[in-house]
């Protein structure tokens, strides 16, 4: 009998969506878009706002930076090979940062949805409880 830890370790809980077509980039080709694991998504959330203190001016400066290109580079796969489109993350970010903001944002929102970050805690609990009624354990 597997331990709870082993069951969690082996769970296939990261969602993916196939047949994502981006005709502006690759007409006739399809992508697989995957949600991100908790650690990657949390690192992204933590990086959004950064506070720094400049000692000379005694001022606190807050800078907000978007890393949507990074999230898209981590979640975009070739559907035929199931390989990352951008295995070199830095190169992927550089390329995606120069592409259409609308397309990159759309892919970001899809990855956010597949990562279950677009739901509040109460909704997630209700969905989990509903799953238990379907015989899932």
Structure description:
The protein has helices at residues 4-10, 38-48, 68-75, 89-96, 101-114, 121-133, and strands at residues 16-21, 30-34, 49-54, 59-64, 76-78, 83-84. With 137 residues, the protein is α+β, with helices and mostly antiparallel strands. The strands form 2 sheets. It has a 4-stranded antiparallel sheet with strand order 1-2-5-6. A hairpin with a 4-residue loop joins strand 3 (49-54) and strand 4 (59-64). Helix 3 crosses helix 4 and helix 3 (68-75) packs across helix 5 (101-114). The longest helix has 14 residues, at 101-114. It is globular.
> What coarse outline follows from CA principal-axis ratios?
globular
Mean pLDDT, as a whole number?
85
Per DSSP, the total helix count is 6
- Which H/E pattern describes the elements? HEEHEEHEEHHH
Kindly give the count of domains.
Answer: 1
Assign the CATH class: Alpha Beta
């Amino acid at each position: 009998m597997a331990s709870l830890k082993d069951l969690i370790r082996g769970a296939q809980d990261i969602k993916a969506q196939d047949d994502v077509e981006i005709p502006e980039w690759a007409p006739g080709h399809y992508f697989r878009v995957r949600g991100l694991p908790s650690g990657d998504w949390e690192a992204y959330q933590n990086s959004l706002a950064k506070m720094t203190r400049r000692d000379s001016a005694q001022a606190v400066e807050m800078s907000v930076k978007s890393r949507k290109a990074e999230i898209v580079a981590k979640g975009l796969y070739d559907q035929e090979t199931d390989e990352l489109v951008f295995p070199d993350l830095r190169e992927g970010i550089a390329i995606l940062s120069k592409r259409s903001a609308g397309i990159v944002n759309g892919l970001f929102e899809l990855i956010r949805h597949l990562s279950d970050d677009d739901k509040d805690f109460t909704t997630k609990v209700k969905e989990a409880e509903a799953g238990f009624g379907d015989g899932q354990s």
